[in-house]
Design goal:
One of its GO terms (biological process) is negative regulation of cell division. The protein is an alpha/beta fold and 322 residues long. The chain contains 12 helices and 10 strands.
Length: 322
């Protein structure tokens, strides 16, 4: 399952992304964690040192290399330069798996608390004033577009803060989106934005309350988000220790918060896997981007990159291996 963590800045979404990643990895299931936030803090939240993180090659600065790898021998894509972040896979494309031979994991990943961590990378000096962060997040979108994840396999993505995630079609790449919300007017306001933007795209959004102190906070969340409330995390000494740069063992996490993480996994596992929808939405957002800017940028009609007879998923993976 592909899982996004979203929310306003300071809501605790990076902390929740790290805790959920650790919770899954502790159960010895395959997990990939991707830091796709402009504030690159997921690696630190997973206990990686600054030195190790500095050695990790960012996805966002190797776009051409990633495009070249993913296009494979797809006859509809003439070159890596012809690809954009929304170019979907087709017959001949290089499809990825969570386990086994995955060249992106080998090239850009590092072990972190039992998971594989990849990062989109921070803004560089040359990006300031001339580029938006979506140019880097596009690398993660391409990874997700080409990934065939199987049962009991998980990708956890720490998204950029606020509603900025909707500036690309990446928000449709997930089987479940957890929106982390504090029990405040601003906290639940981001949920209402998300719900409005996602309404016509069949995106599953569940709210995880964070920094909850008492029953009044829970009732506030219920009042404002209703049935979307999936659980809540209470004020945590474990999290405070993380935020101070310490590296506590997951076994020290408070019992009520462990139960919330377990409930979140149950909810993810119960979510339907719809490869037809995944494929259709890939095509829809590729056409939208092509018409808005990509055709002009590439000097070609990128609608021709769509393979109408291709359905992403396990069958495509099996056929590609033959």
């Amino acid at each position: 399952m592909k899982i996004a963590f979203a929310g306003k800045g300071g809501s605790g979404k990076t902390t929740l992304s790290a805790l959920f990643t650790r919770h899954l990895a502790a159960q010895h299931v395959p997990v990939v964690a991707i830091d796709a936030d402009i504030n690159q803090n997921l690696g630190a939240a997973l206990g990686m040192s600054e030195e190790r993180l500095a050695e990790l090659p960012p996805l966002g600065t190797h776009l051409e290399e990633i495009k070249e790898l993913l296009r494979g021998d797809n006859p509809r894509i003439a070159s890596a330069q012809a690809m954009v972040k929304t170019t979907p896979p087709g017959r001949g494309s290089r499809l990825l798996t969570l386990t086994g031979d995955n060249p992106l994991h080998a090239r850009f990943g590092a072990a972190a608390r039992g998971a594989t961590l990849m990062v989109t990378g921070p803004f560089a000096e040359k990006d300031l004033g001339v580029s938006c962060y979506h140019s880097k997040v596009g690398a993660a979108e391409m990874y997700l577009n080409h990934l065939v994840d199987g049962p009991g396999e998980y990708v956890v993505v720490d998204m950029t803060a606020g509603a900025d995630s909707f500036a690309s079609g990446m928000f449709t790449r997930f089987d479940m989106t957890f929106l982390v919300a504090e029990p405040t007017v601003r906290g639940v306001g981001v949920y209402r934005q998300y719900a409005e933007y996602a309404r016509d795209h069949d995106v599953a959004i569940r709210v995880i309350g964070n920094k909850v102190q008492d029953e009044a906070d829970v009732e506030f969340l219920r009042e404002h988000v209703g049935e979307a409330l999936a659980g809540w995390m209470t004020h945590s000494g474990f999290v405070r220790s993380m935020e101070k740069g310490r590296d506590p063992e997951l076994s020290d996490l408070e019992e009520d918060n462990v139960k919330t993480l377990a409930r979140m996994r149950d909810m993810v596992d119960a979510a339907p896997k719809d490869w037809e929808k995944f494929t259709r939405q890939s095509a829809e957002f590729h056409l939208r981007n092509a018409q808005a800017w990509a055709n002009e940028a590439k000097g070609a009609d990128l609608a021709s990159q769509l393979d109408p007879d291709f359905l992403m998923g396990p069958t495509a993976l099996t056929e590609a291996a033959q």
